[in-house]
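Troubleshooting log. The previous structure file for this entry was overwritten by mistake, so regenerating from the original sequence record. Sequence copied from the archived sheet and checked twice against the printout by T.R.
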Amino acid sequence: MRQFQNFEEENIHYWTGRTDGYSQVNKEELASEQKRVWGGMLTKKIDAHFPGRAPEEIRVLDIGTGPGFFPIILTKAGHHVTGIDCVEDMLLEAKRNAEAEQVSPTLLLADSHALPFPDNHFDCVISRNVTWTLIDAEQSYREWLRVLRPGGKILIFDANWNLRYHVPELMRQYQEDQKRFAEIFHKQPDTLSPEAEAYRRNVPMCKHYRPNWDFDTFLKIGVKKIFCDADITDLVWDIGRKVRYRSTPMFLLVAEKPC
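Regenerated output below.
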């Protein structure tokens, strides 16, 4: 197995290798009901936090944009969206996917731990399945707050995807979910390679119970208004995901920058 000098190098290597597969998942979402589901839910959440403002007046930053799913659907809804990722291949795919969808969000190579934007620049920061991959999530959260305008919101969509590697009972539940998926849909779920499993065991954030950790961290760095929906499964997942990840529900955490 390849040796890495540090986790940052391993992180970029892993996600570079995942680019094609992850992009294919996004393309399938864009061609399915998931596009409408996520688009409707996102715009509803953002509009609710910024009442009276037109979509084009709300500056949105998508952290860890990957193949561009969030920027594509939000740009279609009229928002001014910037998407960043630390993996060049992901951004190339995001640009191709955006072109195919006939939209032009701003897509930049950047590190979420040290954002290349001035203070108080965005109204809303969003991310999906990103925090679990971060090297120093507390530092990233400080940066996300820095680039937000006072009263701006951070919307984090994530789950305890890999906590099972550190909690045997969660691994047992996960394996039961996979078995149930195969029985219901008459096909085997995709499996991870040994390299992928090794990577996920080593990701620092995957040892934390979330969103508890996120709550504590935002309080630590000065956020006083935090909202969390611990399970948004019924809002965003199709039946296959609900079965396969029954014991790993997706949560939504919203943190507001103090005025």
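The mean pLDDT is 95. Archived copy saved in two places this time.
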